[in-house]
Amino acid sequence: MEYDREGPPLPTPRGPLSGAVGARLRGTGPLPDPEAVAAASAYGDDLQLALYQCYELHYRGFAGVSPGLEWDPDLLRVRAALERRFLEALRAGTPVHESVADAVGALLVEPVHGEGVSHFLRDEGELWHLREYAAQRSLYHLKEADPHAWVLPRLWGRSKAAMAAVEFDEYGGGRADRVHARLFADLMTDLGLDTTYGAHLDAASAACLATVNMMSLFGLHRSLRGALVGHFAAVEITSSPGSRRLAEAMRRTGAGPAAEHFYDEHVEADAVHEQIVRHEVIDGLLEQEPHLAADVVFGIDATGHLEDRFGAELLAHWRAGRSSLRTPLPAAPRVPAETSHTS
Amino acid sequence: MPNSPSEPPRPPAAPRRIKVQRRGPLLVEGPVEVELEDGTTVSSDRFRVALCTCRRSRRFPWCDTSHRARSAGPGDGPATKD
């Protein structure tokens, strides 16, 4: 049997489901009982980590784990049970708008006195908040745009061309030093964080894992292509103003030039992406497949639902003066950033 | 076809298309070079560029979504990502 030599280590289990999936990936122990999956909390640490491990086989895998397990039927059966539980909870718990126009329109209004995470970080965030935020978000940003690339073969015509163009931009327009995942690693370096892929998995909360698992879920299933497009639109539409606040937070705290640049780049890039995703990707998809409108709405609103949960959790911890992480970060070696990353 | 430095620049095959919206930025196919009022130029090699028309952008001439409507409510928006 062949094993991946590179890749992150398997995470520390958070319960019987994630423990059994991890054991199976190591080649020991039985898979979880389907009844245990049905009884687990859909947004809880155990189920979310079990699902995250299943999905990670489709990205970079884990060191010491066979890459062939990506298509192991028994593991896929468990993944399907985990996904069912997660998707049912998402569908049941997400308040949805009546139409795509309503859902998109709601995202296009900026609150004057916002109280979200980016507002908190802009106004009163300290370096330790920014480091925790970056550590948690690294689970997505170190594979930024990857979950969305899976939708490309499921689109055609206008929506495919536009989606590919936006993804090309996310991947640095053909330049490795501009790949957004790379820009995020540079931000992490400014913040004194370990930039190794998967380094912060044990530290990330279940609410954070859920936001990334949702992308993988929507990306890997052609039947959920409408939801993937809706999700991507929600991210792109809300990113620009949020990124501006985060860039201000990085500037105010003196986080470093690469940390500022990551969010400055997203202010500009996503102001463009928003337009393309709204007018080309969504409209193109619904022109061809109008029956997917409800899924697009679901993707938009489910994204808001999970992001709100994650944001509320971060703020609850920080307002109480507590860490939001499951495992503490090593202290930052405050090395002054020497490289300028301005565009 | 590979480009070599000795090749003269070729004129674009078709007029450059600019998408105009009543509310929102001008969308121009990149790369673009923009000359500002003071004579300085800024450039972007993005595949598409959004140029601010509301004059509120803090990254003028690029759009930063400052044209958006604002709500008085204290919420963070229905799905503010960050």
Task: Give short descriptive properties of this protein.
heterodimer; A: 343 residues; mainly alpha; Heme Oxygenase, Chain A; 14 helices; disordered C terminus; B: 82 residues; mainly beta; 3-stranded antiparallel β-sheet; two-stranded antiparallel sheet; elongated
Question: Can you lay out the helices and strands and say which pair or pack?
Answer:
The complex is a heterodimer of chains A (343) and B (82).
Chain A: H1 16-26, H2 34-39, H3 45-56, H4 73-93, H5 100-107, E1 109-111, H6 117-124, H7 127-141, H8 146-149, H9 157-170, H10 180-190, H11 206-220, H12 225-253, H13 257-288, H14 293-319
Helix pairs in contact in A: 1-3, 3-4, 3-11, 6-12, 7-10, 9-13, 10-13, 11-14, 12-13, 12-14
Chain B: E1 18-19, E2 26-29, E3 32-35, E4 41-44, E5 48-51, E6 69-71
Antiparallel strand pairs in B: 1-2, 2-5, 3-4
What does this structure look like?
The complex is a heterodimer of chains A (343) and B (82). The radius of gyration of chain A is 19 Å and the shape is globular. Chain A is mainly alpha-helical and 343 residues long. Chain A folds into 2 domains: 16-93, no CATH class; 100-319, Heme Oxygenase, Chain A (Up-down Bundle). Chain A is built from 14 helices and 1 strand. Chain A has helices at 16-26, 34-39, 45-56, 73-93, 100-107, 117-124, 127-141, 146-149, 157-170, 180-190, 206-220, 225-253, 257-288, 293-319, and one strand spanning 109-111. Chain B is an all-beta fold and 82 residues long. Helices cover 0% and strands 26% of the residues of chain B. Chain B has strands at residues 18-19, 26-29, 32-35, 41-44, 48-51, 69-71. In chain B, the strands form 2 sheets. In chain B, strands 1-2-5 form a 3-stranded antiparallel beta sheet, with no helix packed on it. A two-stranded antiparallel sheet of chain B has the order 3-4. In chain B, strand 3 (32-35) and strand 4 (41-44) form a beta hairpin. Classes of the chains: A mainly alpha (343), B mainly beta (82). Chains A and B meet through strand 1, helix 6, helix 9, helix 12 and helix 13 of A and strand 5 and strand 6 of B.
